[in-house]
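Entry 14. Structure prediction run on the chain below.
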Amino acid sequence: MEETDGLFNAAGDSMCVPLSRLKGFRANGTTTQLLVEFKAMLGYGNSSDDDTFVADSVLLTITANKQKEVIADITAAINAARNIDKPMISICDASNSVFASPFITGCANTITAEA
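Output returned:
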């Protein structure tokens, strides 16, 4: 979550995705970012065709070279939530400085629709 103007009133200010839509994590070519990808909420979310498949994503800003630690921390938060039947976790709430890992410092959402 990120307030772009002090309010949650713009596209991409917040995003809540079921765990079942998590595709995985990947580097994006920098030492200070990690991409978390989800099956698309709009478009061909159930497509298995790589030519048409789209993904929603959250780009995490992280401490340099801490991708492995961030992935481990997010995975631990997911597992801990399951063990106590917690319905939701926050990976990145930049507005309130709530992060699933001490190595996450910010985020940006991308929700994609098939053209």
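The first strand starts at residue 22 and ends at 27.
Filed with the rest of this week's runs.
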